[in-house]
Amino acid sequence: MAQEPDDHLIRLDEEIEGDRGASADYVFRRIGESVPLLPSDSRFDLQNPPSRPLAVSDRFGTLFLAHSEGFLVARTRDVIEKAKAIKEKGKGPCVQDSAVVDVRIGRVSILSLSSDSSTLAATIGGEIHFFSVPSLLSKEQEPSFSCSLNGSVKDLKWQKNAGLSYASLSSDGSLYLGRQKEQLRNVMENVADGLYIYLYIMNRSYFNFIEVHRLAP
């Protein structure tokens, strides 16, 4: 049986411009001004931008931000202070200036944190690199494990309450399941856009699949 959506999840159904927004229960207020990632022009390729360039760890108070040659690891409080300074002075340093570490691994498409924030997955083409978050905060830049799939990684989702298990979808429609430090298993082909697949883990080894097709409006 499918689980009900988390009642505490805030869903943003539309993008709203401006410095302030509100709902019945929450007020969103912009802090400071935009902070550049790097000192030089590092714009993404607009024809092929990263699909998920940001990951946020509340547990470690840390931001993971993709740039054109890798990703930055920065303390959330430091970036907030930079945003405030830029608003006050009109200019200021970039995120890289005070980043904990700048990991140059190539053009990242997806940054995704495990549910316990202990592991960061970074995808580049068909490669998935896994980094220990505590190691990154100690300035270590080497991934703890890497694997690859056919085609490029279109999406990657960590399974909640299931250790370090995850599912990955390739650009050719193949669905893979894996655990950190284990090779991927191809479990389904021809997964079309618009098909949602819910994965539930049974005693850490078995998965039940429930296919939910999106109905046409």
UniProtKB/TrEMBL annotation:
- GO BP, sorted A to Z: RNA export from nucleus
A molecular function (GO) held by this record is: structural constituent of nuclear pore
Family matches, as SUPFAM superfamilies = Nucleoporin domain
Q: Which InterPro entries match?
A: NUP214, WD40/YVTN_repeat-like_dom_sf
Q: Which Gene3D superfamilies match?
A: YVTN repeat-like/Quinoprotein amine dehydrogenase
Q: Which domain of life is it from?
A: Eukaryota
Instruction: Name it.
Output: Uncharacterized protein
Q: Which organism is it from?
A: Ananas comosus var. bracteatus (red pineapple)
